[in-house]
Amino acid sequence: MAMQELLKEIAAIPGVTGSCIFDRKKGPLCRDLDSPLSAEMFRDVGMHLVRLVQMGRMSDLSVRSSHFRFDRYTVVGIPLDNGMVLMTICENQANCSLIATTAGMLVTDMCEASHGDDGAAADDAGEGTTTGEPAAGEQEPVDSGAVDLEMEGYLRDMEKALAGAIGPVAEVVMQDLLDRWRAGGPAIPARLSELAGMLAEEIGDEVLAAEFRSQIRDII
Length: 220
Description:
Elements: H1 3-11, E1 16-23, E2 27-32, H2 39-58, E3 66-69, E4 73-79, E5 85-91, H3 96-126, H4 149-166, H5 170-183, H6 192-203, H7 206-215
Antiparallel strand pairs: 1-2, 1-5, 3-4, 4-5
């Protein structure tokens, strides 16, 4: 069954506004959603769900489902085996247990559908090119994630300072933001101030963010 059809089955449950698949790097993907959340808040909630799943795995705990209950609506999150999360937005009076159970029954089909979509996208991207060689006019990709020993030391120090501000979740947050930072350019010391700004913004508290910056001032 196609992913969109699976999402429609969930959206048909009484009290459900809609649902989508959330990827920590790409944001909401396949969706059947009329969300009351703003785009920015939607992404924030999705990232919280992804990090919750990651933290569970770090502690050898398997998260089956998670409910975020807000003042006007509830978000039910169910992890997929590919690192993505199924997000369902529903009214507060909706039966979240029923929603989680129904969605959970469709997770296997969703994982298979998402793998199929990834394979099709890869096939489409490969048309007209020679395997292992860039297409005409394209440049060889640059591995911007490769860092030397000095950079690794800087990044460890930044993660340690971040942990002092937000606790054990720092490892997960650091990895998420490192992926976004590396996507924006080469991982070099000259760009560490940019990464520091992203981490300080993620902390959210002005006092803690200032303390974080103070601890890494010799790096940036």
